[in-house]
Amino acid sequence: MKVIVGSTNPTKLEAVKQALKIVWPDREFSFDTLDAPSGVNEQPLSEQETIKGATNRAQFGLDNSDADYGVGIEGGMYHIDEQWFVSDWVVIINRAGQKGIGGTSRYPIPQSISQHIDENYDLSAVLEKKHGYKNIGKLDGYAGLTTNNHITRTASNRDATVIALAPFIRDFWNN
Q1: Which residues pair with 173 in a beta bridge?
Q2: CA dist 39 to 60, 62, 138, 151, Å?
Q3: Which one of 42, 62, 138, 167 is most buried, counting C-beta atoms within 10 A?
Q4: For residue 83, what is the DSSP state?
Q5: Cα(5)–Cα(170) distance, rounded to whole angstroms?
């Protein structure tokens, strides 16, 4: 089975590899990546926009490869009441057009970081410019940073990918 991940981020690829091996341990997979455009803002600021970005990445991967499954992963921030949160969304699309969606846990963002969101910084830029953390999105992510790596971005996205695979696992999704 061929899988294309619409990102060259190594944490996203590793999350997809781990999830597929959990769900289908006896299947053989080949993986490829490409830098797929999200078609949304660099820092999505709603769950709808984040899901759209993940969907666009998955579809772009399918449209530009011979893969059986396209996977898109997009991170975004959401304002709920007076608190900002960050999470990732995973979208998986197969050649038949069947789609699965899964989301990570939502991690709260403290005021010391979220106050800079209005300055048009994305979360990674704020963490680097204001707090000195470099390449956080390609390492353990905000999830790893905020939980002291008890939950990494790879682990969080692995679980969200398993959730996104639900329609491909259970028949009741297709009835």
Answers
A1: none
A2: 10, 15, 20, 28
A3: 62
A4: E
A5: 22
Is residue 73 in some structural domain?
Answer: yes
Range of the domain at 69: 2-106+152-174
Query: Nearest CA to 60 among 1, 2, 6?
Result: 6
Pairing verdict, β 99-103 and 83-94 = antiparallel
End-to-end CA distance of the chain: 24
- Among the residue ranges 18-32, 86-100, 103-117, the one predicted with the least confidence is 103-117
Asked if residue 56 belongs to a domain, the reply is yes
- pLDDT score of 121 more than 90: no
Q: What is the helix (H) or strand (E) element at residue 62, kind and residue range? A: helix 47-63
| Pair 76, 44: CB distance under 8 Å | yes
Joined together, the tokens standing for residue 46 give 């709603």
Query: Looking at residue 130, what DSSP letter applies?
Result: H
Fill in the DSSP letter of residue 42: S
At 132, list the tokens.
């000195």
pTM of structure: 0.89
Instruction: Check the CA dihedral 59-62-68-72 and report its sign.
Output: negative
CATH number at residue 85: 3.90.950.10
- For range 91-115, the mean pLDDT: 91
Please tell me the total count of domains within the chain.
1
